[in-house]
Amino acid sequence: MRTIIEPFRIKTVEPIGMSTLPEREEALRRVHWNLFLLRATEITIDLLTDSGTGAMSSRQWAALMEGDESYAGARSWERFEAAVKDIYGFRHVIPTHQGRAAERILAQTMIRPGQVVISNTHFDTTRANVEAAGATAIDIPIPEARQPRVEHPFKGNMDTDALEALIAEHGREKIALVLLTITNNSGGGQPVSLANVRKVSEICRSHGIPFYLDACRFAENAWFIKTREEGQQDRAPIDIAREVFSYADGCTMSAKKDAIVNIGGFLCTNDDDLARRMRDLLILTEGFPTYGGLAGRDLEAIAVGLYEGLEEDYLRYRIASTKYVADRLHEAGVPVLRPPGGHAVFIDAAAMLPHVPPLQFPGQAVACELYRVGGIRACEIGSVMFASRDPETGEERPAPLELVRLAIPRRVYTQSHMDYVIEAAAEVLANREKLRGMKITYQAPFLRHFTARFEPL
Ligand SMILES: *Cc1c(COP(=O)(O)O)cnc(C)c1O
Fold this sequence. Notes:
Layout: H1 21-30, E1 45-46, H2 58-64, H3 75-88, E2 92-96, H4 99-110, E3 116-119, H5 124-132, E4 136-139, H6 160-170, E5 175-181, H7 194-207, E6 211-214, H8 218-228, H9 237-246, E7 250-254, E8 265-269, H10 272-285, H11 296-308, H12 312-331, E9 344-348, H13 349-352, H14 362-374, E10 376-377, E11 379-381, H15 383-386, E12 388-389, E13 396-397, E14 403-407, H16 415-430, E15 438-442, E16 453-456
Parallel strand pairs: 1-10, 3-4, 3-5, 5-6, 6-7
Antiparallel strand pairs: 2-8, 7-8, 9-14, 11-14, 12-13, 15-16
Residues 51, 98-100, 123, 125-126, 181, 185, 214, 216, 254, 256-257, 265 line the site of pyridoxal-5'-phosphate.
């Protein structure tokens, strides 16, 4: 088989930060080993997130010039709405400045305090918005999702037996909605099968429970369905996406993911009365319903990007390039989560540094070493981010997994950049016996990973 190449060529270039080892060691000391506090110019390859970091195409840049900045009823709004309706098929489309604004409006219009929301896995902003509305967020992924090295084609699936049990336990009235995240970001970017979407939808419909999708990576999910689910191989990703959306009552979307833009999002619903209440809330904080906090040019770029994100050549390259990194790391002996997801590769830092206990933050140690040796910024997803406290004793309890996420921006880095990342990770592996854990010297009461200070032990 031939190499799967980037299906684009480069028209504009942006220099990246090249640095020396002593400069990076100095930078780590200055930011107290917290990679969020680095200046972007100090980073060579930035794999902190795939959100809003994609490269727009020449067609998207051309569309920006078509932006109609009329306050109400702009032409750009019409193009945006037509594109979303064509692909998603929902009756109402409500633009927002990014995904979490859509989540906030959904939560505040659909949830009453004391209710529960059920998901395969809530993304962290989704969970925060559910909890801010006074509800409890419950995650029921299939059991395989919690086993890092077990292979399964659709590890993002929801456990439908657990769903029926929860409905029996709580009763329909207590369940505000069921929200399926495709792909399951917090579960490692793992896909959800068409069969699972259909089954969850059937269960919700039979009980009259609203069923929504967190659709940020709907195109990557469609590609996994096409390539992994029986009988789907001959279908276009756009047709699979349309079928997925046909089973839901609405969705939230961060356009910073599969619409390949730097900012934007939206909310969809088929419920007329709910849409009216959502628009009232939108006007209060986001903007008039035909722009929702976005410029007309942003709406244009989303309208183009939604279709580009569904192109087969793009998706084949996108998923192959993520798999390439995961497979090469695996071959080099770096423990990675299996199978690779759509948008990111996860290094299992607990397996890489077995001598560092979870509460000495092996993920943070690996992430800092990746920066030290290669100027690469990754993100710790382990006990720095998700440790909890025992409500009785106040004792800190580690997160279930100690991971380092290498999130891959869309259309930004080439294969040689990724080869460089693989080499740097192999160097971290070679140094592993010398690596020590970390201690926290300062932390904020909430979301400590953004501002915490560390010191190597
Ligand atoms: C990014 C993301 C969000 C939130 O979107 P923002 O645009 O960052 O506000 C919600 N859900 C999932 C699954 C995401 O990946």
